[in-house]
Amino acid sequence: MSKLVGRISEGRGRVLIAVDDPSLSLKDFESLVLRTKELVAGYKVGVPYLLSFGLDSIRDIIRRYEDTYFIADLKLADVDVVMSLTVRVARAGGFDGVIAHGFVGREGGLEGLHKVCMDLNMDLYVLVSMSHPGSLEIYDLVMDKVLALVEVLKPTGVVAPATRSNVIKYVRQRLGRHYIIISPGVGVQGAEFGSALCAGADFEIVGRAITKSEDVVRATKYVIKAQEDYVRSRKCVGD
Amino acid sequence: MSKLVGRISEGRGRVLIAVDDPSLSLKDFESLVLRTKELVAGYKVGVPYLLSFGLDSIRDIIRRYEDTYFIADLKLADVDVVMSLTVRVARAGGFDGVIAHGFVGREGGLEGLHKVCMDLNMDLYVLVSMSHPGSLEIYDLVMDKVLALVEVLKPTGVVAPATRSNVIKYVRQRLGRHYIIISPGVGVQGAEFGSALCAGADFEIVGRAITKSEDVVRATKYVIKAQEDYVRSRKCVGD
């Protein structure tokens, strides 16, 4: 079982806070973690943030909060040799999990990455569809093939968009309860807090609605309350 | 016209040296650039290298070789907001160009990235197919849609795999001479030096065959000679 699931069984909310924008200083990032780590399941750190500050600086923060859960949202999409090098760097940086794109395919791609992740005890999340409208143009046309690949590889979980709850429902129905579904797209990107959970996701990824807030604790509590209200007031997948 | 094309008109080879593996120290990276910059068109720096050393250190090297050409091979594949943040970081790091995946689609994806690249005077290369066998499983099934997107967006160029020269031929035929084609997959990945050029690519991306060599100057000259021999001895696209 992923350490991520353990985090919610300890009473934390089904939220992963996304940190992408380098205008959040390292000091503010650490303050965010310090103030919200008992409220949320973990943190997802994106490429612009990782590139801007470098893994050395971020590792120093992660090491001080080892009981927390950090995903490197690298959206890996390369040949296996290169992705494997990257994931080793991310693991050395203290990350517990990594996100890769399903569309790169198995042979010479995700298969090798998955093996390295298992060797490193690193959780792997495979993207199967994205939250922006452009995902409908190309990605979603091959989603069934990506899901078939997920069923063969058996990674820790998948990433599916909150902005299209029918996609999450479909993914949950197809994969069953064997995979964690994490979902971006709630909040500033447009989907209601709780809507992805209701459709079958396990965690919602929330970025700017928390990180751009004046009071991150209040914003986080607001999001968790909104999720609970949404799920309680509707008939949800799994009810 | 991209500065990259200018580099070959000044007599350099049609080679971009790929630097991915962080086992190449920064000192050796700088030595590689210093010793080969008059031989090759430029350098392509990959995610594991960028993450491991951080952009600050790499920017210091790039700044010392401003007449050279550096592509950040980030294989961007995210929503427009996040890709735009990343490309700003890469531009601040001194890079001349960036690579993004075509499959993310236009709306809320590549369209926004392309606009930011134009604002920043940053070359954009769009991946249309990859060099590993897994690319056939999913990516190549939607390549026509990716190429249609390229025709709408008009980026600087595209990335197509040397390991399947029929793909390069197809891309060149479809896009005409309006786009630079850069091609990974020659050397250690299996395709012969010069084979992608012969199929219609403008530049071949060469990594380990040069970077893992004892003598990088000799290895680079060997690759360029092999390219020229291949192209001269065969009937090539554009002859």
Write a short abstract of this structure.
The first copy, chain A, has 239 residues and is α/β, with parallel strands linked by helices. The first copy, chain A, has helices spanning 3-9, 26-36, 47-64, 80-92, 106-120, 143-153, 165-175, 195-199, 208-211, 216-232; strands spanning 13-19, 40-46, 70-76, 97-101, 123-127, 157-159, 180-184, 203-206.
Tell me about this structure.
The structure is a homodimer of 239-residue chains. Chain A has 239 residues and is α/β, with parallel strands linked by helices. Chain A has a single domain, classed as Aldolase class I (TIM Barrel, Alpha-Beta Barrel), CATH 3.20.20.70. Chain A is 47% helix and 18% strand. The first copy, chain A, has ten helices and eight strands. Chain A has helices at residues 3-9, 26-36, 47-64, 80-92, 106-120, 143-153, 165-175, 195-199, 208-211, 216-232, and strands spanning 13-19, 40-46, 70-76, 97-101, 123-127, 157-159, 180-184, 203-206. An eight-stranded parallel beta barrel of chain A has the order 1-2-3-4-5-6-7-8, surrounded by six helices. In chain A, α6 (143-153) links the parallel β5 (123-127) and β6 (157-159). In chain A, α4 runs parallel beside α5. Chains A and B meet through α3, β3, α4, α5 and α6 of A and α3, β3, α4, α5 and α6 of B.
